[in-house]
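sorry for the late reply, my laptop died twice this morning and i had to redo everyting from scratch. anyway the thing you sent over, i finally got around to it. pasting the sequence first so we're on the same page, its 307 residues, then the predicted structure underneath. double check i copied it right bc i was rushing
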Amino acid sequence: MRGRTRLRRVGLPYLLLLPALLLELLVHLVPMVIGIVMSFKELTQLQIAHWGAAPWKALGNYRVTVDFDAPVGATLLHSFAVTCAFSVLTVGLCWVLGTAAAIFLQENFRGRGLLRALFLTPYALPVYAAVITWAFLFQRDNGLVNHVLHDQLGLTGDRPFWLLGDNSFVALLVVSVWKTWPFAFLVVMAALQSIPKDLYEAAALDGAGIVRQIRRITLPSLRPINQVLLLVLFLWSFNDFNTPYVLFGKAAPEAADLLSIHIYQSSFVTWNFGTGSAMSVLLLLFLLVVTAGYLLATSRGRKSADA
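ok and here's the structure:
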């Protein structure tokens, strides 16, 4: 009887985890393994119906992908540079806006609850509804953005194209920051609740102003949560597919050609699934290396700070 009770106690956690493990296996692990296998095959539209019998290409797809002197590799390298710049700017702006808003809304004042709800609205909206709205706002002739900047304020000499050319990167960045920064605001606002108010009161008695309190108390206290927040924001922005796809369609402009949409074009527009799968595997390896290096660096920094 005692052994049966112990078995139930030990086996219950695994039993409860079983549905999640099965979903993880079916939704993530199995497609990932299939994608890795596809990256070693010469897989085009002609072989997709019988992809298992497609010719074996070994590392041929990877050689084409990393040959930066050839058109495929050159466009992939450009897309990688655009994605890095987009991710760094998105993460930085989202963190600054979210942290500033969270610190500002810690003070009690009339209408604070309304502002909190208003700031969370972009995060609560469905992605497609939000991005489609921005696509209408960025229209050259009928969009609100050009109406305000050109017609009302006269800041531009002519109505710029926001969804074409170099301005497309700015449009993509604005939309991404707008819909992502409330997540940083929500996380930082929750983390601020754990900071004792006694620290601020003692700092105020010592003559520390608001800026010094933020530098000496708020930011050091937020360091553990910020380490996780920055990593999550980076992974989200680097893998963002919905925003450029809904904003630009299947063919994103060269200035806003993120890796996610570039891999999609290689796989489902040009129907070269082998090359597209190789790009996806390389993207996965890059993100794993970056994540591991970031976690290692932050853990060492935490240990040295504790010491």
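The chain is about 75% helix and 0% strand.
thats about all i looked at so far, will dig more tmrw
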